From TrEMBL:
Its EC number is 4.2.1.113. Keywords: Lyase, Magnesium, Metal-binding. The lineage of its organism: Bacteria, Bacillati, Actinomycetota, Actinomycetes, Micrococcales. CDD domains: NAAAR (cd03317). This is o-succinylbenzoate synthase. GO terms for molecular function: O-succinylbenzoate synthase activity. Its cofactor is a divalent metal cation. Residues 142-234 form the Mandelate racemase/muconate lactonizing enzyme C-terminal domain. It comes from Microbacterium fluvii. Signal peptide: none annotated.
Length: 368
């Protein structure tokens, strides 16, 4: 595409209810929306950083700074830019993968819209809808958790993931198992434990979970391998898998037997596909994680999750699980426990300009 400019906006999107993990509580989703302006039309992307650097070292106002100071100028320096070259152009800047992912998605969407080609087809989707799991935040008590999970099961979600942290783990998991029997169930610790907690983590083995997600720190690859040898529950890394290289290393060390793929965390949808491809070749199941995406990222995640190696239900839930009002005109909805892969050109969703304006709190336009 002939890139003419990039517009960045910080949005504050109200959540339907607070979302609590081992690292904190969010009541408003602060996110950056990217608009790529090209000679052949525009494209949209989303930078999935959180307001605070608690899930990873990235955070929204750091993203806002690095995008304007380094990454967007590097892209605008290119006369013609294919989506496949965005990663290369941004490679000299270390880290900031969520920012790179959001910029790449906007360029990719612009290029595909201009071609009239859907993102799913481009990425290699083999399904027209994907099974939908839901990530449930830490609640005030095990009873409250059972109540919340029951609501999602009634809506049709096909897999439940509950967030855990030290002291809010075994009783919570037991309560959900007791209440709902053999439902597909998994837990996510978001790095809240250490190897000293091995006895607690081993207690979770009796609940026959699909997996335990990221029990230890992002850089604890060897410790995850040690833990994996002592648990029967499969370990699935999230935070640790920041690239295809990191995925290869974690698999080689037997630190993980399943991988959660999030395009933001790994620097873009193209790197996400590379991780998918290597896992498919190695027989390692993957699933699509989420970062409370708006309708932009949610459409892209549905497309990604439709690739053949995504054999476990992902955190690709309906928009209404998080947002009373989305910024796209056709938000993702749950239909018999599934979310449809959009079929229109590019992301296959259109921005709702009024909603976008209403939630924008900061804006900047950078031109060539
Ligand atoms: O660890 O998967 C995670 C949300 C923000 C940061 C990290 C995580 C999550 C979720 C929500 O679990 C996934 C979703 O978008 O539904
Ligand atoms: Mg996770």
């Amino acid at each position: 595409v002939a890139l003419e400019g990039i517009e960045l906006r910080v949005l504050h999107l109200p959540l339907v209810s607070p979302f609590t993990t081992s690292f904190g509580t969010e009541t408003v989703r602060e996110v950056i929306v990217v608009r790529a302006l090209t000679a052949d039309g525009e494209g949209w992307g989303e930078i999935v950083t959180s307001a605070a650097p608690l899930y990873s070292s990235e955070y929204t106002h750091g993203a806002w700074d690095v995008a304007q100071r380094f990454l967007v100028p590097a892209l605008l320096d290119e006369r013609m830019l294919s989506p496949e070259r965005v990663g290369e152009v941004l490679e000299p800047v270390v880290g900031h993968r969520m920012v790179k992912a959001g910029l790449e998605l906007a360029v990719l969407d612009a290029a595909l819209r201009a071609e009239g080609r859907p993102l799913g087809e481009y990425l290699g989707a083999v399904r027209d809808r994907v099974p939908s799991g839901v990530s449930v935040g830490i609640q005030s008590s095990p009873a409250a958790l059972v109540e919340t999970v029951g609501g999602y099961l009634d809506e049709g979600y096909v897999r439940i993931k509950i967030k855990i942290k030290p002291g809010r783990d075994v009783a919570e998991t037991a309560a959900v198992r007791d209440a709902f029997g053999t439902i597909p169930l998994q837990v996510d610790a978001n790095s809240a434990y250490t190897l000293a907690d091995i006895d607690t983590l081993a207690e979770l083995d009796r609940f026959d979970l699909l997996l335990i997600e990221q029990p230890l720190q992002e850089d604890d690859i060897v410790d995850h391998a040690t833990l994996a040898r002592q648990l029967t529950t499969p370990i699935c890394l999230d935070e640790s898998i920041v690239s295809a290289k990191a995925a290869r290393d974690a698999l080689a060390l037997n630190a993980t037997s399943i991988i959660n793929i999030k395009a933001g965390r790994v620097g873009g949808y193209l790197e996400a596909v590379r991780i998918h491809d290597l896992c498919l070749a190695a027989g390692v199941p993957v699933w699509c994680g989420g970062m409370l995406e708006t309708g932009i990222g949610r459409a892209a995640n549905a497309a990604l999750a439709a690739l053949p190696g995504f054999t476990l239900p992902g955190d690709v839930s309906a928009s209404s699980r998080f947002y009373p009002r989305d910024i796209v005109t056709e938000p993702a909805v749950l239909e018999s426990g599934h979310v449809r892969v959009p079929t229109g050109a590019g992301l296959g969703v259109e921005i709702d300009p009024l909603a976008l304006e209403e939630f924008t709190v900061e804006r900047v336009l950078l031109r060539r």
